[in-house]
């Protein structure tokens, strides 16, 4: 049984691009049969969510320290290197889900 992956997706406002990215991440998790839960936030709220999530995805550059797996996923929004990012996300999410 795969572990449910708690995902935080952060963007500038916590609304626009994080919602677009959440749709993409949802599709990936569903295709891989990975149980998941997505929370969205603004970049300034990331620190407040770190104890509740397994992985953090951002749609902007984030210079703070994140002691969890973290990936900038701007390419899912812009389409730049989108396929490459999706492959990296599949591997990352699969690995987290396989953890006990």
UniProtKB/TrEMBL annotation:
Q: Which UniProt keyword terms apply here?
A: Transferase
Q: By its UniProt entry, which Pfam families does this protein fall under?
A: PTS_IIB
- Domain PTS EIIB type-2 residues, every copy: 5-97
The processes (GO biological process) annotated in the record are: phosphoenolpyruvate-dependent sugar phosphotransferase system
The residues that cross the membrane are: none
Q: Which SUPFAM superfamilies match?
A: PTS system IIB component-like
Which InterPro entries does the UniProt record give? PTS_EIIB-like_sf, PTS_EIIB_2, PTS_EIIB_2/3
Which molecular function GO terms apply here? protein-N(PI)-phosphohistidine-sugar phosphotransferase activity
Keyword Transferase carried by entry: yes
Identify the domain of life: Bacteria
- Official protein name in the record: PTS EIIB type-2 domain-containing protein
């Amino acid at each position: 049984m795969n572990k449910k992956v708690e995902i935080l997706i952060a963007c500038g406002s916590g609304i626009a691009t994080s919602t677009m990215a959440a749709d993409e991440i949802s599709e990936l998790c569903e295709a891989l049969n990975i149980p998941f839960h997505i929370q969205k936030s603004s970049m300034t709220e990331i620190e407040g969510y770190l104890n509740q999530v397994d992985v953090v995805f951002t749609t902007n550059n984030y210079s703070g320290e994140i002691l969890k797996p973290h990936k900038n996923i701007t390419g899912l929004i812009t389409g730049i290197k989108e396929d490459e990012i999706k492959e990296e996300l599949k591997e990352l999410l699969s690995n987290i889900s396989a953890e006990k």
